[in-house]
């Protein structure tokens, strides 16, 4: 009887361990790039495939590639502003469908690479519009701007591919600046707010509220999607965490560095409180900290340097473009990351080819295996 009871207990223990292992494996399938989903969606309807492509495009804005993360980000955008959520959804659908009609590379389309620039253009058109929410005529420039991003992406990729550089958000930055220059602040159909330079003097600007500055750090992550509400910003950060904990850590670190850079330059308090000082630093830190470079102590320090450079470049460009009422958008982080990817020397050995970029944890494992294989090969050659 005692032996039977002991056997039952052992079997129950093994069953619980097996169940826990299955649950853990299922949860792990929802993290990273979710490449298994692509195989599952191959024979599904076009509408379902388009939905997955669009959700991947949503996360490409924040340098991730996970449909579940994209769904969380969309929830965050609709939570912050249903109008902005609608504009973002329309932008990513239009740009993705334009890429399909143009016959762009199927791997790029399914990976969301033709959607995220259109989404950003749509969000920024809505943010800078002075007509308020639910101004339906705004859908016209949103659709045109989103579709134009595909043409720019295709043209720029043929040039940048020669140096193994990503197109990134160059199309978005170009299109939104052209749109704001074309319409102007007093346009009768599409008026927009003028951007205020972060270095502009403000009345009663001597007191800083520490809690608001700290609150601005997670808001810096949300501002990548032009979201200035704390709850949705935390949900966006959670979406990044689902994709990659390393990327989420670098997002917060970069935003904190950007806030610190803003403090050192005495920018307007609104820039600190709303996270506007942090989002370029977050993007610069994320791009280098494990995404385009395999993570190590060297590349971690490079990511910190990239965050500082992105933040200071953003302040400089914002002050320059703000004199004519234009925003600097994410020019600073885009240009900084591009320069970092052109580095030579020992750090270039950590560089990951654009076609092989995955989640930072996957990049780290792949590089470890590659390094181990090279070591074994050298040893066998020596023998």
UniProtKB/TrEMBL annotation:
Its main location: membrane. The chain crosses the membrane at residues 61-79, 85-102, 109-128, 134-156, 163-181, 221-242, 249-267, 273-294, 301-324, 330-350. It is found in: Cell membrane. Keywords: Cell membrane, Membrane, Transmembrane, Transmembrane helix, Transport. It comes from the Eukaryota. It is a multi-pass membrane protein. One of its GO terms (molecular function) is urea transmembrane transporter activity. It catalyses: urea(in) = urea(out). GO terms for cellular component: plasma membrane. Belongs to the urea transporter family. This is Urea transporter. It comes from Lates calcarifer (Barramundi).
